[in-house]
Design goal:
The structure holds three protein chains of three kinds. By secondary structure, chain B is mostly helical. Chain B has helices at residues 53-56, 66-70, 77-92, 98-126, 130-151, 173-196, 199-205, 213-219, 224-227, 235-238, 259-283, 300-309, 331-337, 349-354, 356-366, 410-416, 418-422, 430-437, 441-445, and strands spanning 13-17, 29-35, 38-45, 160-161, 164-165, 297-299, 319-321, 377-384, 389-396, 404-408. In chain C, helix 2 (30-38) links the parallel strand 1 (22-26) and strand 2 (61-65). The chains are: A alpha/beta, B mainly alpha, C alpha/beta.
């Protein structure tokens, strides 16, 4: 098992729900109350040294046969050690919220705003959780599987 | 009696640099709070070009996403195409042929040079150096002619396929490319003489838009922006993909993280990209294929008609001449550029038009409901885009339609740091900083 | 009397068609072809349309280049209303003509649902020769229309 996954399992034990290395990408499914600690561990541990948060996104698992509705996906990279890691947090439909990472990486600010805009996942403690890609009058969350692709909500012009 | 000139009350002014403004980089709205000319605070609003790439990618098959990808970073469309195709290939777990890797590297580098030309040209134009813009666009036209020879289109190319590329390089490509690179080098030399030590240009770019190393890493910035602060991270060297490890090229790294460093870095990167292209053209395997076929040439449509009429004798031996737009897709070239996998690659055109197995193979790949079906899972593949690390994260559920395609846009993180970079500077400093950010709307808003 | 007014009409039309001040409302990939058209290889300056005016009050032709999303539509409408008569609109690229292949929740399906359009230049993006052809058609339209003085 690659070193990243070993260390995470060792430290967080029961909170790690699943791990895999499909096609060489080390991935760990971790429960949502431990995500900030896990990210901090990845950043500060000298052997792992993940200093860049590359990406923060979400997947709507409505049609994938999984017990949870959303998965928030975090990608990390270490410049010195040249390895990558992916953490995923499963969230249910009734309470899609997770703690923000803006305390550790200010770059997470805009990524989290985009996830809120497109999926409706709330980030507790975010300084400014507003829509970023769509306009404020837009109703609904566009990238959810149950939002029809052609449903337009025009501000000016006809409804077509 | 002297006038008492102390201000009794002062307040800051709010100014809107609206979505449509002359700095021809795309549409962004910056709401500024100004105290005189100094920027006290700012709020950057994006999303004016949101075209729902990620939602459209979930509607069709894996191949139908490729035209959407070239409208992401439309100044260097080939890099996006290849990034997406590689992410899906990673999901499959297959490896592409040698010649495809070389072709992808050469075309990516040509795109990268075009991107840097546009960026530097537009930045210089906004500072008043209009001639530089004209020279750079002239050089870019030579590159567009090359791209058009290979792919058929200038800007939106859709050249990548999962498992290979659409068609092979045409004959005479090497000479044309070397000539175009020579002209580009001339243009770069002229531009260098015009602005690199020009007092006005240097004064407006040096010391402006500074970002520190720690801030750049904290915001997740990559690419020329990060390298200008002193961190040496280039996906081509650190997480090498295709055949980049066989080339001898340098990655320029700056020191101060200001606009001038980024300008010099981009000029140097163009030179290095041209070195890579030249080495690639030398090393590319399976060069000219000289096959002398002694059969007559017959247009494909005629062959099908003859076969329908029942005149099939002798048809199999004929060489089929497919439509000129399908040049480079015939059997002689096909094995060189497509991964040998029946599930992924359409058969060469002689087989498609010639025999029923080829036609069925083609049908199964192209029609709805069949098509390219990767195994269930997820994969992330990063490539070095012109602005930084461009990553594609593809989730598949085993059917022919992608479940989720996510683009990690390099300029998204840079734009989130823009507010910090312009704070404390004057209003006129926003323009060169914004120019060196190289914001591409298609990539930022997707 | 009728002869005199038609001659004035022709002269004014001739002057207007060769001095087009464009407002390039550039958003997306068509902007790359717009840059190519405006620069030395496919020179738009020889048609008299070389100098873009970046203020709607000072320009006569609004070139809408690139996809318009619903977030940007009110801005476009406002800019069109700020232009002074006589004004013309060119829809450059298929995203402005009909929405292109972006049939989704975020894209306006053709700007003629918001503002009146005079010339449509389809293509994704249109080749520079297409653009010059469209521009010549615009010039014909300007020359042949009734000039309000």
């Amino acid at each position: 098992m690659p070193i990243v996954l070993e260390k995470i399992k060792e430290k967080f034990g029961a909170a790690v729900l699943d791990t895999h290395s499909f096609r060489g990408d080390d991935t760990a499914l971790i429960s949502r109350d431990k995500i900030v600690e896990a990210a901090k561990f990845l950043k500060e541990d000298p052997e792992l040294d993940f200093n860049v948060l590359i990406d923060l996104t979400a997947v709507d698992c409505l049609n994938l046969d999984r017990p949870h509705r959303f998965e928030v996906v975090y990608h990390f990279y270490s410049i010195a050690k040249k390895h990558r890691a992916r953490l995923k947090v499963p969230l249910t439909e009734e309470d899609p919220s997770v703690d923000t990472l803006t305390g550790l990486w200010p770059g997470a600010n805009w990524f989290e705003r985009e996830v809120w805009d497109m999926f409706g996942v709330k980030f507790n403690g975010h300084p400014n959780l507003q829509r970023i890609l769509m306009y404020d009058e837009f109703q609904g969350h566009a990238l959810r599987k149950d939002y029809p692709v052609r449903k337009r909500q025009p501000l000016v012009g006809p409804q077509n | 009696m002297a006038l008492d000139l102390k201000p009794t009350r002062s307040e800051t002014m709010f100014l809107n640099m609206g979505p449509s403004h002359p700095a021809m980089h795309g549409i962004v709205r910056i709401l500024l709070e100004l105290d005189g000319e100094t920027v006290v605070n700012s709020d950057v609003e994006i999303g004016f070009l949101h075209r729902a790439f990620e939602k459209m990618a979930e509607q069709g098959g894996y191949w139908q996403v490729v035209p959407y990808t070239d409208r992401l970073n439309y100044v260097s469309p080939l890099i996006n195409n290849f990034g997406y195709a590689s992410a899906v290939e990673k999901l499959f777990g297959i490896d592409i042929t040698e010649r495809t890797k070389y072709i992808r590297v050469i075309m990516s580098e040509i795109s990268r040079v075009a991107d840097h030309l546009t960026c530097v040209g537009a930045t210089a134009m906004e500072m008043g150096a209009f001639t530089v813009f004209l020279y750079m666009i002239k050089a870019r036209e030579y590159l567009y002619e090359l791209v058009e020879d290979v792919t058929g289109a200038r800007v939106t190319v859709s050249y990548a396929r999962v498992g290979g590329v659409k068609s092979d390089l045409p004959e005479g490509f090497k000479e044309k490319t070397l000539k175009a690179l020579k002209e580009t080098r001339k243009v770069l030399k002229e531009v260098n003489g015009l602005i690199t030590r020009n007092r006005i240009f240097v004064d407006r770019m040096k010391g402006i838009g500074v970002i520190s190393k720690e801030d750049a890493l904290a915001y997740g910035i990559t690419g020329p922006f990060l390298r200008s602060t002193g961190v040496d991270y280039d996906v081509r060297k650190d997480q090498s993909y295709y055949v980049y490890d066989r080339f001898d090229f340098d990655v320029p790294v700056g020191e101060k993280g200001d606009n001038y460093d980024r300008y010099l870095l981009r000029m140097e990167e163009m030179e290095q990209s041209m070195r890579i292209i030249e080495q690639g053209l030398e090393q590319i395997p399976a060069g000219e294929i000289n096959v002398d076929m002694d059969g007559r040439v017959i247009p494909a449509a005629e062959m099908v008609d003859e076969a329908k009429m029942g005149h099939t004798s002798g048809l199999v031996q004929l060489e089929v001449e497919a439509d000129p737009t399908l040049e480079g897709t015939s059997e002689r070239f096909y094995g060189n550029i497509h991964a040998c996998s029946k599930k992924l690659a359409v058969p060469p055109k002689e087989d498609t038009y010639g025999n029923i197995e080829g036609l069925m193979n083609h049908f199964k790949i192209v029609m709805d409901g069949h098509g390219v079906k990767p195994p269930k899972g997820e994969a992330y593949f990063p490539v070095e885009g012109a602005n930084g690390e461009l990553g594609f994260y593809v989730v598949s559920d085993g059917t022919g339609t992608p479940y989720r395609v996510r683009v990690r846009p390099p300029c998204f993180t840079i734009m989130s740091a823009l507010s910090k970079m312009i704070q404390g500077g004057t209003l006129a400093d926003i323009i060169p900083t914004f120019g060196s950010v190289n914001m591409i709307g298609g990539e930022l808003d997707r | 009397m009728g002869f005199f007014t038609t001659k004035v009409n022709d002269v004014v039309g001739w002057a207007r068609k060769y001095s087009i001040f464009q407002y390039p409302f550039v958003t997306a990939c068509c902007g790359m072809e717009y840059m190519s058209v405006a620069c030395s290889h496919y020179d738009i300056d020889r048609f008299g349309a070389g100098f873009p005016r970046f203020s709607p009050r000072q320009s006569d032709v609004l070139f809408v280049v690139g996809t318009i999303s619903h977030k940007l539509a009110p801005v476009l409408k406002r800019i069109f209303e700020q232009m002074a008569e006589p004004k013309w609109v060119v829809a450059f690229g298929v995203c402005t003509c009909t929405g292109g292949f972006y049939d989704n929740y975020a894209t306006v399906q053709g700007i003629d649902t918001i503002i009146p359009v005079d010339i449509y230049i389809p293509g994704c993006p249109p080749r520079p020769e297409n653009v010059l052809d469209g521009l010549m058609k615009l010039q014909e339209k300007i020359a042949n229309s009734k000039q309000a003085l």
